[in-house]
């Protein structure tokens, strides 16, 4: 009697291989978690595994490769965590517990009740795909206050898993085919280059001016756009990161206005990455949102600009990276395109609810007079003041090292020094098939335990070498790190100059 099942076909190997997979994914690079970080994780395993026989001249890795404040010692703010805890707890264990007022401040209990009502009772349920309306109203009130009364509409707010997922959504909509180009700063945060590569678009770089503390240059922007058009690239958008990542600059009000006018003139969708808007350390610097600049130049009233702005709970003074909270605001975007973005958001159902809650708490904290207000503000000031000191310690310390040039960190969480590279190191790197600053970063890691990101991963002018470092670890550790940077550079230079 014949078998009811057919024999298995002969094995022909794996169906999904490096050759058959998406080549866009295969070619995508994301330096912030690249080869140097992989090496750092391997060393960290050696240091923490009691059975490891591999020895290193230090007892821990100093991770300065990524803006992850709580991962390197920043304490979470108390009040937001109290509210979030109460939201997660069942009512009888939290807001309705007979001793709730003894365990939590009254304003935390009140806010948790309000949030649970907005969520329909539970943090475990899906929300509206753009986020709960009550939370989006909190965001629009924050934007209106920040921008001096410029109106915002909760229907134009999309709550997202950090700013990164919002950026990915927008780039997905923008890159219709391989001819589409996105103007990105050089250097830039690699989420942009990686996402554009993944989606099959064209990166159109415009160089920031390092000699002027990484300022924008209108002539350079025009040059970049003209060259791209001459190559047949259909440039449809422009990325601005302000305050800068990896460069740490804060643009002047005048520069931001020039950018919004440039985008309006050339009919480019402006992607405004503004996640570091609270991280301003230069007393003379002031954050100017692109939306406010567009309003003051008359572009909003004339419906003459298409703008998408991003913000996040990961940076600022919250540093809640793991919560994945953030939002984007759409301004002047075609309604049918907004409908398609809503469809894309709906395909993911909703962003994570803890991140949504944290975003609401970031934009609307305890108000003056509330029992938690003074402690909450004091905690924020403590974090800010320490960040300001660390920005000075690291940027001035690096700039003082012979062979280094480091611009002042006016904002964000990073320094991006230029490093003079010995010819011997450049030749050795070429022989290994890696950029010279990757060789440098790996050497720095092996000898000091400091994990940085090679500057080549962010883009830079031909012949420039360097790295990006955060200044997020504790002050004493960053003071020691500056000494280690100097010692390593002297030893590296001597090794490759022989």
Low-confidence stretches: none
Looking across the biggest beta sheet, what order are the strands in? Answer: 2-8-7-6-5-3-4
**Major beta sheet summary:** 7 strands, mixed
Output the radius of gyration.
Answer: 24 Å
Distance between the termini: 81 Å
| Helix share bin | 40-55%
Tell me how many strands there are.
14
From the spread of the alpha carbons, the general shape counts as globular
Structural class: alpha/beta
Summed up, the helix count is: 17
What value does the average pLDDT take? 94
Write up what this structure looks like.
The chain is of the alpha/beta class and 498 residues long. It has 17 helices and 14 strands. It has helices at residues 23-27, 35-48, 78-88, 100-103, 106-119, 133-146, 162-174, 190-199, 218-230, 253-265, 290-296, 335-347, 353-363, 373-399, 423-432, 436-448, 475-497, and strands at 62-63, 157-161, 180-186, 202-207, 234-241, 269-273, 307-312, 325-331, 404-405, 414-415, 418-419, 450-451, 453-454, 467-470. The strands form four sheets. A seven-stranded mixed sheet has the order 2-8-7-6-5-3-4, sandwiched between helices. Strand 3 (180-186), helix 8 and strand 4 (202-207) form a beta-alpha-beta unit. Helix 2 runs parallel beside helix 16 and helix 10 crosses helix 11. The longest helix is centred in the last third of the chain and has 27 residues, at 373-399. The chain is globular and about 70 Å long. The chain starts with 22 loop residues before the first helix and ends with a helix. The model has no long low-confidence stretch (mean pLDDT 94).
């Amino acid at each position: 009697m014949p078998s009811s099942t057919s024999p298995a076909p002969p094995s022909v190997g794996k169906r999904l291989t490096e050759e058959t997979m998406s080549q866009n994914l295969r070619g995508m690079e994301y330096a912030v978690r690249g080869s140097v970080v992989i090496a750092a994780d391997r060393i960290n395993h050696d240091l923490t595994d009691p059975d490891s026989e591999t020895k290193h001249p230090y007892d821990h890795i100093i991770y300065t490769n990524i803006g992850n404040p709580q991962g390197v010692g920043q304490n979470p703010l108390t009040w937001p965590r109290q509210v979030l805890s109460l939201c997660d707890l069942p009512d009888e264990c939290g807001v309705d517990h007979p001793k709730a007022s003894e365990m939590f401040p009254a304003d935390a209990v009140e806010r948790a009740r309000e949030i649970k009502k907005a969520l329909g009772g539970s943090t475990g349920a899906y929300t509206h795909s753009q986020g709960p309306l009550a939370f989006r109203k909190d965001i629009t009130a924050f934007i209106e206050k920040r921008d001096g009364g410029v109106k915002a509409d909760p229907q134009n707010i999309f709550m997202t898993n950090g700013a990164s997922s919002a950026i990915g959504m927008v780039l997905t909509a923008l890159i219709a085919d391989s001819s589409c180009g996105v103007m990105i700063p050089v250097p830039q945060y690699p989420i942009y280059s990686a996402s554009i590569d993944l989606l099959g678009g064209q990166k159109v770089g415009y160089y920031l001016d390092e000699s002027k503390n990484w300022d924008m240059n209108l002539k350079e922007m025009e040059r970049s756009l003209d060259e791209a058009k001459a190559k047949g690239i259909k440039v449809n958008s422009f990325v601005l990161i302000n305050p800068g990542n990896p460069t740490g600059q804060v643009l002047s009000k005048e520069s931001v206005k020039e950018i919004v006018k440039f985008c309006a003139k050339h009919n480019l969708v402006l992607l405004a990455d503004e996640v570091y808007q609270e991280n301003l350390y230069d007393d003379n610097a002031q954050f100017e949102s692109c939306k406010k600049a567009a309003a003051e130049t008359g572009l909003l009233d004339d419906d003459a600009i298409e703008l998408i702005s991003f913000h996040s709970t990961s940076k600022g003074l919250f540093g809640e990276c793991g919560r994945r909270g953030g939002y984007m605001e759409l301004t002047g975007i075609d309604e049918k395109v907004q409908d398609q973005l809503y469809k894309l958001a709906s395909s993911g159902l909703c962003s994570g609810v803890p991140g949504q809650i944290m975003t609401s708490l970031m934009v609307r904290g305890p108000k003056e007079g509330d029992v938690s207000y003074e402690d909450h503000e004091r905690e924020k000031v403590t974090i800010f003041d320490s960040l300001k000191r660390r920005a000075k310690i690291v940027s001035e310390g690096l700039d003082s090292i012979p062979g280094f040039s480091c611009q002042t960190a006016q904002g964000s969480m990073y320094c991006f020094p230029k490093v003079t590279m010995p010819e011997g190191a450049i030749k050795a790197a070429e022989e290994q098939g890696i950029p010279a600053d990757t060789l440098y970063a790996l050497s720095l890691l092996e000898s000091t335990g400091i994990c940085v990101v090679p500057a080549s991963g962010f883009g830079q002018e031909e012949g420039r070498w360097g790295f990006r470092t955060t200044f997020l670890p504790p002050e004493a550790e960053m003071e020691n790190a500056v000494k280690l940077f100097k010692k390593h550079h002297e030893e590296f230079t001597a090794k490759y100059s022989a």
